[in-house]
């Protein structure tokens, strides 16, 4: 079987001896049904005669589910039963010898703890690398823990996929976000001799959901204006998506000549050109989430709404941009009705700041209770979740997420004493879209976006003569373990 990168996402390794017999087979099957993408038989504490019998049984199961079957260390056994491949450590049979025995079609994985070992393994024809221990582990007593920076350097050093191994659990996997791994090799996070089959299935589902979120390339699209100074608009959006390891694309609605002092000119694209941009994107690289920002006129809004319906776009975050931080109007007065009537019905979430929420709810907002009332009105009118941002007028950092009348949450953020807040709204909404693209639910996506914007503001970057932009790179998400899964 030819190895693909996605085979390595959920790498389930059997425990060294327990369980055995049918219990082992039942647990392996539950793991595969739960989302294991590759199985390794690693039975360090079982007599060789029994391992062969087990290997044939587990192999048959893997063949049934079309999941690669790898044997740990034992090249001869892998050859004898024609397993899909082997995994060899630095002290096992040399790679070239294993390759000469198993042939070019076998999958050969190699453990590497340094860049040099990884590079050598790649040069000698390894199909993937296993590297760690990325967390403290009790499975291999002699193994030392590897820093995540070293692990990332190994991932970046070779073009073949690298699997993280060592002490991985559903609770710590996200700490490796952005490190470049192709998957997670796990033993105890999946298998346990005292677990029921349902428990194995559930545990595997949990780690598989997180693993896919962390390793799959997800795409997101921003449909917004260009801010030539880079602080807001699609520039802020694309930097934010990159920081979340999401592949960002952009359909530009307007060009603005803008900097930290204000907006001096605006040139809108034509509806036909907007349609062409959206067709180009959706017919080739469908986005998993959409963020809309500056939408200056009703003609553009109409064509955007039509195309989002046509392509059945999902995870649509509408940032109802009306006035720039510098005070410039970014939407025609007569376009607001089109925005609320044609786009908000498609929205997963709308993210107004205080003035925008006042416009959408037709009420003034001077306190937290007003924010709640306005959110409720917007929800009842447009039937989408609402995030009313505390922003510059109420409390700067406490936002209200209103999902339904009985489901609303205050997201408090520490007020960061930084006058450079150009593009905070754009950044927050595109961070939410990036997290929705990665599979997070709305509350988790909002929390992670708040975490992110706190990092970009705390960097205290200070450029431009006016209210400057944030440092989007400061929030590179692997520099900060996220509080929620
Ligand atoms: N000084 C600050 N400290 C911490 N968080 C902040 C600060 N200022 C804004 N935020 C947060 O940034 C996010 C964007 O809110 P804001 O009200 O700035 O949106 P906006 O007015 O739409 O921004 P923009 O000017 O980019 O359109 C919100 O989560 C808000 O709580
Ligand atoms: C292009 C653009 N979009 C959105 C905003 C809102 O900050 C801005 N200032 N510029
Ligand atoms: Mg805004």
TrEMBL record:
The protein's name: Thiamine-phosphate synthase
Record keywords, A-Z: ATP-binding, Kinase, Magnesium, Metal-binding, Multifunctional enzyme, Nucleotide-binding, Thiamine biosynthesis, Transferase
Pathway membership, UniProt: Cofactor biosynthesis; thiamine diphosphate biosynthesis; thiamine phosphate from 4-amino-2-methyl-5-diphosphomethylpyrimidine and 4-methyl-5-(2-phosphoethyl)-thiazole: step 1/1; Cofactor biosynthesis; thiamine diphosphate biosynthesis; 4-amino-2-methyl-5-diphosphomethylpyrimidine from 5-amino-1-(5-phospho-D-ribosyl)imidazole: step 3/3; Cofactor biosynthesis; thiamine diphosphate biosynthesis; 4-amino-2-methyl-5-diphosphomethylpyrimidine from 5-amino-1-(5-phospho-D-ribosyl)imidazole: step 2/3
Cofactor (UniProt): Mg(2+)
Keyword Protease recorded: no
UniProt keyword annotation of Hydrolase present: no
Protein family (similarity comment): Belongs to the thiamine-phosphate synthase family.
E.C. code: 2.5.1.3
Domain Pyridoxamine kinase/Phosphomethylpyrimidine kinase: start-end pairs: 227-471
Species of the source: Veillonella montpellierensis DNF00314
Residues at which Mg(2+) binds: 73, 92
SUPFAM superfamilies assigned to the protein according to its UniProt record, in alphabetical order: Ribokinase-like, Thiamin phosphate synthase
Sample GO molecular function, one term: thiamine-phosphate diphosphorylase activity
GO terms (BP aspect): thiamine biosynthetic process; thiamine diphosphate biosynthetic process
Textual note on the cofactor: Binds 1 Mg(2+) ion per subunit.
Name of the coding gene: thiE
């Amino acid at each position: 079987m030819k190895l693909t990168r996605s085979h390595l996402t959920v790498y389930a390794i059997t425990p060294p001896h327990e369980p055995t017999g049918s219990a082992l087979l039942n647990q392996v099957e539950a793991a595969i049904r739960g989302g294991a993408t590759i199985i390794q038989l690693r039975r360090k504490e079982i007599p060789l005669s029994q391992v062969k019998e087990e290997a044939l049984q587990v192999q048959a199961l893997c063949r049934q589910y079309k999941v690669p079957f790898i044997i740990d260390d034992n090249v001869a056994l892998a050859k004898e039963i024609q397993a899909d491949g082997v995994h060899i450590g630095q002290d096992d049979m040399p790679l070239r010898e294993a390759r000469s025995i198993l042939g070019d079609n076998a999958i050969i994985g190699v453990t590497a703890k340094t860049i040099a070992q990884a590079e050598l393994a790649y040069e000698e024809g390894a199909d993937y690398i296993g590297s760690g221990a990325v967390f403290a582990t009790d499975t291999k007593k002699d193994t030392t823990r590897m820093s995540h920076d070293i692990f990332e350097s190994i991932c970046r050093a070779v073009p073949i996929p690298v699997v993280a191994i060592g002490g991985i659990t559903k609770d710590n996997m996200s700490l490796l976000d952005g490190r470049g791994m192709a998957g997670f090799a796990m033993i105890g996070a999946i298998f346990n001799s005292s677990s029921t089959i349902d428990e194995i299935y559930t545990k595997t589902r949990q780690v598989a959901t997180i693993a896919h979120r962390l390793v799959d390339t997800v795409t997101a699209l921003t449909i917004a204006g260009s801010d030539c100074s880079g602080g807001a608009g699609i520039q802020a959006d694309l930097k934010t998506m990159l920081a979340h390891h999401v592949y960002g694309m952009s359909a530009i609605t307007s060009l603005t000549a803008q900097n930290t002092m204000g907006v001096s000119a605006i040139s809108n694209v034509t509806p036909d050109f907007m349609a062409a941009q959206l067709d180009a994107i959706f017919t080739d690289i469908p986005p998993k989430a959409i963020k809309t920002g500056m939408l200056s006129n009703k003609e553009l809004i109409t064509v955007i709404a039509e195309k989002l319906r046509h392509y059945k776009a999902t995870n649509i975050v509408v940032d109802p941009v009306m006035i720039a931080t510098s005070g410039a109007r970014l939407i025609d007065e007569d376009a607001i009705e089109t925005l609320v009537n044609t786009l908000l019905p498609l929205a997963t979430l709308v993210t107004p700041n205080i003035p925008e929420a006042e416009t959408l709810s037709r009420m003034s907002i001077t306190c937290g209770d007003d924010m709640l009332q306005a959110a409720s009105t917007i929800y009842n009118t447009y039937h989408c979740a609402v995030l009313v941002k505390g922003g510059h007028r109420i409390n700067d950092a406490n936002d209200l997420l209103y999902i339904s009348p009985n489901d609303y949450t205050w997201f408090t953020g520490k007020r960061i004493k930084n006058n450079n807040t150009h593009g905070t709204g754009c950044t927050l909404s595109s961070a939410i879209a990036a997290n929705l693209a990665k599979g997070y639910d709305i509350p988790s996506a909002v929390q992670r976006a708040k975490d992110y914007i706190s990092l970009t503001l705390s960097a205290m970057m200070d450029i431009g003569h006016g209210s400057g932009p944030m440092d989007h790179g400061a929030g590179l998400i692997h520099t900060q373990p996220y509080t929620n899964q």
